[in-house]
Amino acid sequence: MTLAPSHAHDSPYRPGERPSATSEALLLEQIHQALSEKKSLSIQGGNTKSFLGRPVDASTICTKAHSGIVSYDPTELVVTVRAGTPLAELESILDEKGQMLAFEPPHFGEAATVGGMVAAGLSGPRRPWSGSVRDFVLGTKVITGQGKLLRFGGEVMKNVAGYDVSRLMVGSYGCLGLITEVSMKVLPKPKHQQHLSLQISQKDALACLEKWGQASLPLTAACFFNDTLYLRLEGGDSSVKTFSNQLNGSAIDPNFWLNLKEHQLPFFKDSGLLWRCSVPSQSQALTLPGEQILDWGGAQRWLKTSQSPEAIRTAVAQLGGHATAFTPGITTTPFHPLPTLLMRYHQRLKAQLDPTQLFNLGRMYSDY
């Protein structure tokens, strides 16, 4: 894959090689115009995750033209990329160097962008073992609701100025500002993999996962449904083979994990109202009618049920978790309602970074 001139991804970024910022300037111009006209904006990249959250009644500002790799140093495991860059393009470039986004972000469509990945903050099956999107973000460039282009954080972990602000952008769904650029850590792809399934009850599966979690094992994904525990083993050849021999499981197609994170398994294609329930990993079964998939070793539970949002959230809250609606239109509060104090913090952040309520107003909550 060919990059923009002077930005080959096999060498570190050098001063003077940064690509033209014309597309960034155009975004700033649109934002300043919206501010002068007192209009609200709805941020859009590839539009593959627009089904999440509440609808936003505002003019669209699209980031797709602001695309490209700014810098990539494989030896330092750091990449800086523009928000409109297709996620598939970034992953392809990393793959050429034997590296990856360790948090396995779902695309939910071919048009997914890096900005949307950060704004949604969603992670795939490897998340409990490698970390979330937020754990890998080093820095961001953001246009605030005051029309200011600010840089937070940096390209290395030791450069921590503004680091927490960059992390706040992860999972903010565009409510705090428009991300134009992000710097991230990347990791080498594991050298050895095995993909197995075991016929086992849910109770026994959770007990095994709890036991394995206390040991240093090459486990990087665990999913349970239909009385089957699916496992991915990754790491050194010896450790993977040793643990695999202990399990004596059946080999499965490695694409199972891709289909899981992209919601391409039959479970997701069948009709049913879909909820994402986040709970402590060793929580007991959700006492709700319907079908479930236990991902993240039990910490993320995909639930299809016709139960009311109130009943679902009550049951999940009793386990110490929260629930998000993944089927549009089934509730006016798709994200779990926040306690009063936490909502106050959200509102203060919005007031600091977007005092004019320019961006994605109401996407997460009615007044945020």
From TrEMBL:
Q: Where is the composition biased (Basic and acidic residues)?
A: 7-17
Record-linked Gene3D superfamilies: 3.30.465.10
Q: Which UniProt keywords apply?
A: FAD, Flavoprotein, Oxidoreductase
Q: Which GO terms describe its molecular function?
A: FAD binding; oxidoreductase activity
Alphabetized Pfam families for the sequence: FAD_binding_4
Keyword Oxidoreductase attributed: yes
Annotated segments matching region Disordered: 1-21
* Top-tier EC class: oxidoreductase
Q: What is its EC number?
A: 1.-.-.-
Residue ranges of the FAD-binding PCMH-type domain?
A: 1-189
Report the protein name in the record. Answer: Putative FAD-linked oxidoreductase
